[in-house]
Amino acid sequence: MSATLHSPLSSSLLSASSLQLQERRFFGFAAQSAKRSSDFKHKKLFFSIRASASSSSSLDAGLSTELDVVMGYSEIVPDTVIFDDFERFPPTAATVSSSLLLGICSLPDTKFRSAVDTALAASECYTIGNSDDRMSCFFDKALVNVGGELVKLVPGRVSTEVDARLAYDTHGIVRKVHDLLKLYHEIEVSAERLLFKIPSTWQGIEASRLLESEGIQTHMTFVYSFVQAAAAAQAGASVIQFFVGRLRDWAHNHTGDPEIEAALRRGEDPGLALVTKAYNYIHKNGHKSKLMAAAIRNKHDVFNLLGVDYIICPLKILQSLKESVTPPDEKYSFVRRLSPQSAASYNFSNEELLKWDQYSFASAMGPAAVELLTTGLDSYASQSKRVEELFGKIWPPPNV
């Protein structure tokens, strides 16, 4: 079975080997692979995959793999440190982020480092007197320059991270996205190829509403509660990303979250239950949002998420799915657990169908979402600050 994944969203942190491998494939570079920096030990590369016709050619007639079957229900996004299976799983989409910029700056011989150096040579940033504002200008230019290179490499969309330090400033987020979009237009990248990754605070969701009304696509992240997902869907967000395993981890070590405890009483995994409920809500109410499930821990998670739009899957699980041959009589025993048909019969309470204001939203989030959202924002903000501090040390760059 052959399948192609079209324009999926993904989050990419490119390691040294993966960056150079892409350059060799796309540009014919003959440079040897550089030794990986220790900075990349815990970084992730998220790329959506397309199964080639040859991926199952060695199987007996009538047989398929679990991966083939799963890809018939959802678009799969490999989650890996080094993308060393490039030919079988070519990338189709990517994300440019503060973490990616930090990684690029540790690899001076990559094509992407040239994009950063060019950003640091931007004359319009030179005249900014305040050093913090000047570094922010360089930061935006670097994000866009690298994003522009990624657009050339992938046929799908490129998501650009919006500074997490603006997470509680609706108009600050909107201004930042407009600034980034203007820079993309200057390098002739159209808005159709772009998404903007925004934290799912109340202010972030309101920013998404304003941006989507202008036709600017948004990608909401750090969604850990139903109220976040429903509010983001009501705002018209293009993509809503959940972290299934993180909610499970929180539930193992904490109590007191009504939404999680309700799922546990029903005998359900809280992360899977949240994605299911959000999916049913979105389809029952006709919202356009696509859902992405991340922090997947095992094949059971994948099977329980069949039908969700995107699944970010660790390479080890992908390899296991690919190596598991499914006889014809078992191939269709896989159940699509998420479908518009099942969503139509799902019953929501009157409270769950309401539109929230800022105060009811905050009270409905629950302690798990509040804690996990705060942790994510702190991490992203710290990375952004590190990028600006690094730029301050290397600016102006040599040989530009």
UniProtKB/TrEMBL annotation:
Q: Which UniProt keywords apply?
A: Cytoplasm, Pentose shunt, Schiff base
Q: Which residues form a coiled coil?
A: none
Query: Which biological process, per GO, is one annotated for this protein?
Result: carbohydrate metabolic process
Q: Which domain of life is it from?
A: Eukaryota
Recorded hits in Gene3D superfamilies, A to Z, give: Aldolase class I (3.20.20.70)
What metabolic or biological pathway is this protein involved in? Carbohydrate degradation; pentose phosphate pathway; D-glyceraldehyde 3-phosphate and beta-D-fructose 6-phosphate from D-ribose 5-phosphate and D-xylulose 5-phosphate (non-oxidative stage): step 2/3
Gene Ontology terms, MF aspect:
transaldolase activity
Q: Name one Pfam family in it.
A: TAL_FSA
Give the signal peptide, or none: none
- Similarity comment: Belongs to the transaldolase family. Type 1 subfamily.
Report the protein name in the record. transaldolase
Q: Which organism is it from?
A: Perilla frutescens var. hirtella
